[in-house]
Amino acid sequence: MIEALRDSEIVNKVGGKFKLTALIQRRWLELLQGARPMVDAKGLTEIELIIKEILEDKIAMEIPEEGELETEEPTVGE
Hints:
With 78 residues, this protein is mostly helical. It has one domain. Helix content is 42%, strand content 0%. The protein is built from three helices and no strands. Helix 1 packs across helix 2 (17-32) and helix 2 crosses helix 3.
């Protein structure tokens, strides 16, 4: 399953290496916090599970539109 990371299919599916890395990191954190796997996890490591979820289109990177971005105004201490 790790071999899939060497293939350009998974990189193209999510839109690039950096987006793939960010997606893997976010999903890994979700799994560590108790999220349930979206595919059969029997005998798979966490990274293999995440790769399988991506390849089966169970998870994807959502990029907010420009108007959806929230900006926080800095607060000034008193």
